[in-house]
Amino acid sequence: MSEQALTAAPSTHAPSVNIRGATLRAIIIIWRRDLIRYWRDRTRVLGSLAQPILFLFVFGSGLSSALRGSTGGLGGSGSSLQYVQFIFPGIIGMSVLFTSIFGAMSIVWDREFGFLKEVLVAPIHRSAVAIGKTLGGASQAMIQGLVILVLAPLVGVKLTVVGVAELVPAIFLFAFALSALGVAVAARMRTMQGFQVVMNFLMMPLFFLAGALFPLTGNLPAWLLVLTRLDPASYGIDALRRIVLTASGLPSQVVHGFAVTLFGWTVSLWVELAVLVAFGLLMMGLAVYGFRQRD
Amino acid sequence: MSQPVISVRDLVKTYGKVEAVRGIDLEVGPGEIFGFLGPNGAGKSTTISILCTLIRPTSGVAEVAGFDVRENPSAVRARIGLVFQDPSLDGQLTGRENLEFHAYLYGLPAATRKQRIDDALAIVDLVDRAGSTVMTYSGGMRRRLEIARGILHYPQVLFLDEPTLGLDPQTRNNIWEYLHAVRHREHITIFMTTHYMDEAEFCDRIAIIDQGKIVALGTPAELKTKVGGDVVTITTPDIGAAADQLRSVMHLESTQIDGTLRVEVSDSASFVPRLFSELTVPISAVSARRPSLDDVFLKLTGREIREQANTSLDTMRRMGRMWGGGGRR
Questions:
Q1: Sheet of strand B230-235, all strands in order from the earlier edge strand to the far edge
Q2: Pair B79, B65: CB distance under 8 Å
Q3: Which residues of chain A make contact with B101, given a CB cutoff of 8 A?
Q4: How far apart are CA B23 and CA B21, in angstroms?
Q5: pTM for this model (two decimals)
Q6: Which of A23, A68, A177, B187 is the most buried (most CB within 10 A)?
């Protein structure tokens, strides 16, 4: 699609706006549509709490007691950290990850049910679709991640105003990176048939390698260590964990004990957030490219 | 005709060795309702897709609203409205929200946006239902909303690809009333494809396309004169003998359709008595009528258009529409 500005319109009413302004407006309306649809489907917000509850209270509590029996505590002996507290940020991450990828997959639904055509034939730049859908998916995922915070008191995680204020942008950046990844994949998908493949070969590996359920430090086998460092979600979940556990009043050596390391160097929170932004932008570039190539 | 809104010269589209469109020429003037008729696979959808800049032509020139579809697709897209063959509404948004989405995409000025949406809803009689989500709409209402959306950004041409496919006859006529209202209110050119011959009667001019070529172009009345008089259908137990006798005794060529014989005569009132006196084979029924566009198509191509009318894809589309464009999406 050409990027030329629309030239003088013969019809008095015909839009004579430049394509950049049009693309910006298109991004906003595509984003807004996702939020309207999300808001209209409020049962989903509550329903989405079911899986985290299962993970936290069944898996988390079960493993907590098993670990207490053997090693005494997580993060070194004498630590007061419970396993449920450890996985709590991981479960927020899980919620963000799943919502982001599922949100992006709505592009494939839109394609299947024809709505995407309405967007693709509009006199706008294709990047609007990629950016709008990424922001829409990221906003939904951020809300879904924040909803998990209502469970915090039940697992002994203390929340502070500062902690929540830090979590909002961190969760958003995490959601942005994963939504961009999802959109980049969905831009190339033609049918819902590929969805199962995405589930099994993208979402589950991203989740299991991200350190949501086990610490990424210590005695992991080398191959696993490498894979976890390649998973962008590792940096997101570690960022969330630092914020949540610090706000919860845990000693900093315990918190840093779980941090992601690269070549023996402990990655800082800022670097982790930068990794998310860089990965998100890269994926968004691929998504824009994907939409320009197809259809 | 004043400056044409659509101008097509020697348009060709090939897919590998398959020639979907084989050299089409046509011009459509401002304010016309132009119908593109033909069986499935004749090249209708390919042609309309080229005009809407969705497909690039292999060769030839196509200009829409003063811009070349190949050189300036964005300019063309800003000046045309589209109603696709398959539904393209968001079922979870309300009718008004669907139009708002479109208004943003096409950059309608904020000051007049709401007024324009109200006007478009009024044209298709959907003001009362504008606040309901589209998944609660009937098939006809969805089509009307798509028409309202298609004209929302003041396009010069509204393209409709099989707009009445899968709708019941009453709803189809209803959609036509709205299309005429749109033309009247918006002074817009309407270009549509259909394979329902009876619908072509609603058009100012029609082009009949078969196997990638235009075989006839003109007003419905002009095209019907090609058939030459009345169409007489003869039912007889011995078709072969009847056809022979028509040829040898009455010097008339007949066509065999669905177990009947069809002949064209200039004056059926005087032909029918002659038929009974001159043919020796028994005749069980005779009917005579004015020619329809179906007869025109039959005459020009030697086939009936309805033979191919109902494919499994159409059935699937109808089912899809019935089950609400995806239901919960």
A1: B255-257, B260-265, B230-235, B285-289
A2: yes
A3: 29, 33, 118
A4: 6
A5: 0.81
A6: A177
